Amino acid sequence: MAVAPSRVDGLNLTPLSKDDQNYHRPTDLKAFDDTKAGVKGLVDAGITEIPRIFYRPPENYDSHNISAETQVQIPVIDLDQINKSSLKRKYTIDRVREASEKLGFFQLINHGIPENVLEEMKDAVRRFHEQETESKKQYYTRDLTKPLIYNSNFDLYSAAITNWRDSFGYISAPSPHSPQDLPEICRDVLVDYSKRVMEIGNLLFELLSEALDLNPNYLKDIDCNEGLALVCHYYPPCPQPNLAIGTSEHTDNDFITVLLQDHIGGLQIRYENNWVDVPPVAGALVVNIGDLMQLITNDKFKSVKHRVLANKEDARVSVAGVFSTLHFQTSKLYRPIKELISEEKPAIYRETTIRDFNIQFRSVGLGTSTLQHFKLRQADA
């Protein structure tokens, strides 16, 4: 009979009681990070109980069930004929506006990316994360200047909760590295898919501009589409999903996110203090409003809290197209759009660079509100 390991390369895997005084979280976080094997490495080691660093606080053990009282569905918006029919475009803009103001989330179908490309992108994420640990260790880093940034929990040392997921990221704009610097196992599809997501982003920024009653090119003209990163998440099966979380409750620190999720499910948004599933729709892309969009629209469009549940049955993969220049140094300042403020609706947020916004986000990690940090004092009155 196999015996579950008690240690993996210095990481204590023995579950500890809440009052165990020997538990030292920083030490275990460092030991976990030093393995460079991520959460997948723990699963490969055959653990049957998760390490203490992945425990959610008791107050987060709310039910995974959706409230029967919450009768809301994530809109599925069809982009077919969007540029050929003015009536279809107006109808689509109205739906985008309603979803962005109320839910902050919607799904797109007939967006132009062939389904075989979507499947290949998901397969590439699986291939990278499921290859031998020694093969992917060379890419394990927390250096944001690297061509490919693979690690587990970008906020490992700052966040209150360690998520049950591994990730790798590729920045395709504004200053991409040479494709030859990317792993061959996912190189071609990363480059191709990022170009396709940029095209969808450009269309979305037009629709969002028109939904704000602005010129269609307004959001592109202020460079909301200047930066794009692909963040590819892998959620291994979790032996104790009731104790862990795939991704902590958070909002995104970008303008918009264009997400490709697989069939496993687990993504939820918080709506009227209840959790609502964002169900997988074959061939669809999930779009959500980010904090920077809420800032420049002066709270007209909502950046909504969301999370991903851990599950025991199968690995989950997703690919987030993050529209932001993130850590790149630019002097461009973003503030609430002047057309959206008035004496009755004054500016709620102070101006910021995207880099400063991102630094604030990364300094505290998932689960905290970056927007709150940039609120003007009178907005709190």
From TrEMBL:
Keywords of this entry: Iron, Metal-binding, Oxidoreductase
One Pfam family per UniProt: 2OG-FeII_Oxy
Sequence ranges assigned to domain Fe2OG dioxygenase in this UniProt record: 224-326
Transmembrane parts of this sequence: none
GO molecular function: dioxygenase activity; metal ion binding
Cofactor(s) listed in the protein's UniProt record: Fe cation
Location of region: Disordered: 1-24
The family this protein is said to belong to: Belongs to the iron/ascorbate-dependent oxidoreductase family.
PANTHER family, alphabetized: OS03G0690500 PROTEIN, OXIDOREDUCTASE, 2OG-FE II OXYGENASE FAMILY PROTEIN
Name assigned to this protein: Fe2OG dioxygenase domain-containing protein
